[in-house]
From TrEMBL:
It comes from Martelella mediterranea DSM 17316. The keyword rRNA processing does not apply. It comes from the Bacteria. The keyword Transport does not apply. PANTHER family: 4-HYDROXYBENZOYL-COA THIOESTERASE FAMILY MEMBER (PTHR31793), LONG-CHAIN ACYL-COA THIOESTERASE FADM (PTHR31793:SF24). GO terms for molecular function: 4-hydroxybenzoyl-CoA thioesterase activity; fatty acyl-CoA hydrolase activity. CDD domains: 4HBT. This is 4-hydroxybenzoyl-CoA thioesterase. It is an enzyme of class 3 (hydrolase). SUPFAM superfamilies: Thioesterase/thiol ester dehydrase-isomerase. Its EC number is 3.1.2.23. InterPro entries: 4-hydroxybenzoyl-CoA_TE (IPR050563), HotDog_dom_sf (IPR029069). Keywords: Hydrolase.
């Protein structure tokens, strides 16, 4: 079962002709990542400020299939494809009215904000991520 959330495409996310400008999609994606962690009770504020952990992206593979327009609502489905020792593979689909507009595969790594080296996923975070585990077919 993927994590699901929606975001409207705002005026500032679009170019002069009213279609989405792709850098805005990256900010939306970060918000989806953050919201997924919050959904299982682990806020990024806690991760970063109390546990001294960060989650940089190591790799992204993104494909844009159709334009989205000012006023559209993007429905996101985020699948956890693999949880490694410190890495995490996510695949996310952004849909408008059921049609895929873009999709992205991300590899994220858990790091210490002190030395910026990898750290294993804590058990509670791993358990939360497993909620959305959906390995590729
Ligand atoms: C992530 C790193 C710290 C990893 O360094 P190390 O501690 O030496 O890593 P390791 O060799 O232990 O590898 C860690 C894991 O990554 C995996 N890994 C390492 N390199 C790779 C590559 N090149 N490809 C795929 N996977 C990899 C590796 O297989 C390990 O997986 P597990 O087995 O599951 O543990 C280092 O590669 C790095 O700093 N990379 C740059 C990250 C970066 O700057 N990203 C740019 C975007 S900024 C960003 O996304 C962001 C910024 C601020 C935020 O608050 C949030 C997000």
């Amino acid at each position: 079962m993927p994590f699901e959330t929606s975001q409207p495409l705002r005026f500032g996310d679009c170019d002069l002709t009213g279609i989405a400008y792709h850098p805005a999609y990256f900010s939306m994606l970060v918000e989806v990542n953050r919201a997924m962690f919050a959904s299982f009770g682990v806020s990024w504020e806690e991760m970063m400020l109390e546990r001294n952990l960060g989650m940089p992206v190591l790799k992204m593979d993104i494909g844009f299939e159709k334009p989205a327009r000012f006023g559209d609502v993007l429905d996101f489905s985020m699948h956890v494809r693999r949880i490694g020792n410190s890495s995490l593979d996510l695949e996310t689909f952004a849909r408008v009215k059921g049609e895929v507009i873009w999709s992205v595969r991300q590899r994220i790594v858990l790091t210490s904000t002190e030395d910026h080296r990898s750290r294993p996923w804590p058990d509670d975070v791993r358990a939360g991520l497993e909620t959305y585990m959906d390995p590729p077919a």
